[in-house]
Design brief:
66% helix, 155 residues, mainly alpha, 0% strand, 5 helices
């Protein structure tokens, strides 16, 4: 069976399952950094759009609420990262999966904010901090998608 760092030319394991490719750590790290950069670009570029749009409908204070802000930031980051992933050739499934990982930490921490046991700022900080290893974990788990340098076929 193929392990994380071992080279392999086998196309299947002894039990007939497809062999997992070894991770090309350089490609995975580059992809991770690219996603982080595009997430920041998404937040910086789209935040003014939200601000303007909410102001136009008379809801300019909406971004003052932690729940709204967390969802807006996760959306901005997902759109920036998803656009880059699509440009790099990823299919919609992996883009949706990675985007879900970006919302998950906020979904875990928001109930604590609503219950009054966690501050808004703590939730936003913790959500971003948990998001980073969650993304990396998904990338390692789906190493056939992220851990190589070859182009993907977008569908």
């Amino acid at each position: 069976m193929t392990t994380l760092g071992s080279p392999s030319t086998a196309t299947s394991t002894r039990d007939g399952q497809p062999a997992r490719t070894p991770i090309a750590w350089g490609h995975l790290a580059r992809h991770y950094v690219e996603m982080l950069i595009t997430m920041v670009i998404g937040m910086i570029g789209l935040h003014p759009v939200w601000h303007f749009g909410l102001q136009m409908v008379g809801a300019s204070q909406a971004l003052d609420h932690a729940t709204v802000m967390a969802l807006v930031m996760a959306t901005d980051m997902s759109l920036g990262m998803g656009a880059w992933m699509r440009y790099r050739g990823h299919a919609w499934g992996p883009i949706a999966e990675m985007s879900a990982v970006m919302y998950l930490p906020f979904a875990l921490f928001l109930p604590a904010v609503w219950a009054g046991v966690m501050s808004d700022a703590a939730m936003l900080g913790a959500g971003h901090l948990v998001m980073l290893p969650a993304m990396l974990g998904l990338m390692v788990w789906r190493r056939d998608e992220y851990g190589h340098g070859s182009a993907h076929t977008a569908s």
